[in-house]
Amino acid sequence: MARESLGGGFGRLFTAAVSSNLADGVGRLAIPLTAVSLTTDPLAIGLLSALVYVPWLFFGVPAGMLVDRIDRRVAMAVANVVRMVTAAAVAVSIATGTVSIAVLAVATVLFGIGETLFDNATNAVVPSLVKRRQLGSANGRIQGAQVGVDMFVATPVSGVLYAIAVALPMVVSGAGYVIAALLVLALPTAAARPAPVPGDDNAPVPLKEALMFLWRHRYLRAMVLFTSVVGSAFALAQSVTVLLFVDRFGVTEAALGFVTAGIGVGGLAGSLTAGALMRRFGTGRVLVLGSLLGGVGLVITGLAPNLWIAMAGYAVGAYGVSAWNVPWATLRQMLTPGRILGRVIGAARTVSWSMMPVATLLGAWLARSGLQLPFIVGGAIAAIATVVGIPLLLKADAQVPVDVEDDRDEEAPMPVQAVPLPGAVTTTQE
């Protein structure tokens, strides 16, 4: 069967996502590489990893409010301008010899604020550009763009650029953000705000009501709690990833990007196959598969005796993370009314990422006893939590509205019978 076109509007959003993720990837590798050149203390490196999650804790809900109330194209453009200015400032700091862990820490937070706004707006825009039945494919392509561009293009390029000149990755990253900002401003009008709902007054929904929707929706609430547990386990495991490959396995800075590209094979495969797996086996089974493979892959990385097995294990984990993120994003979009989608996504991320900074620092502390120890502990926690949460995850298919042929961005009905909260719930990565 021929693949159904997602439309020109989604095509422009996809192109903007590619450009933004290219800039993200180049800068994301440059920050820890620069930090490793300043210190090899796992706690210092772990601090930078922990700060990645902080913007979602304090800016997740405000970002959602902005996305729900202003032109979403403008929100994405502003987010990229913030990141462009940050990249330029870091480049100047490196060039003048004033760079420090503190400068990198501030830059990490500012990059995260821009990412919070951009990612929130991107997730909210997708349902406005494609039909409900296309959400799985659309989210898979967006996730595929993130993984493919980040790991196969951006990080190898970043490593080579870093080897040429330490400040060069930040210059290239800043230019990428400028291009992405121009691209999102060219999105169609449909991307600006959710479409009006027939029979509704379409008045702005107060923040309290939007947050109460998430709290009262028992299944979404349970899934967010599940995400908090498993996501924290992954954060614990990955706290010193760069240090692991550079110090434990002797990978050079210039070659590190090519190592992450090898790992990216798994992530890209997960993104591109998740939609087909959802259609064949159902959303719940793909959630179980993704979360379980994510944990198992990390354990393999932690036990790996050499670089090649560590890469293979990490690739398995990356496949699981990507295969999870696609159905989880689709569930949120299907079960949440378009007018409050930005705030619900922001609130869900705020809750699910709330323990990740603490988990990251704990992983960095464990790494002082062995750089592979966090991977073993974090992966084991994620795998055990997934097994406990299987009954919850398998109920995902019962939550999806029966009629998925509706036009784009209609209000998503809540299930007639709310699913009872199981005794133990677990979480995801996104």
Question: What does this molecule look like?
Answer:
The chain has 430 residues and is mainly α. The chain has one domain (9-193, 205-399): MFS general substrate transporter like domains (Growth Hormone, Chain: A, Up-down Bundle), CATH 1.20.1250. It contains 17 helices and no strands. Helix 1 packs antiparallel against helix 5. The longest helix has 31 residues, at 8-38. The radius of gyration is 20 Å and the shape is globular.
Tally of structural domains: 1
Beta-strand content estimate? under 5%
Mean pLDDT across residues: 80
Query: What sequence of helices (H) and strands (E) makes up the elements?
Result: HHHHHHHHHHHHHHHHH
Overview features:
430 residues; mainly alpha; Growth Hormone, Chain: A; 17 helices; disordered C terminus
Topology (SSEs and partners):
Blueprint: H1 8-38, H2 42-51, H3 54-69, H4 72-95, H5 101-129, H6 135-164, H7 168-185, H8 207-216, H9 218-237, H10 241-248, H11 253-281, H12 283-303, H13 307-335, H14 341-352, H15 356-367, H16 373-393, H17 396-399
Helix pairs in contact: 1-5, 1-6, 1-7, 2-5, 2-15, 3-5, 3-14, 4-5, 4-7, 5-14, 6-11, 6-13, 8-14, 9-12, 9-14, 9-15, 9-16, 11-12, 11-13, 12-13, 12-16, 15-16
Quick description:
With 430 residues, this protein is mainly α. It has 17 helices and no strands. It has a single domain, classed as MFS general substrate transporter like domains (Growth Hormone, Chain: A), CATH 1.20.1250.
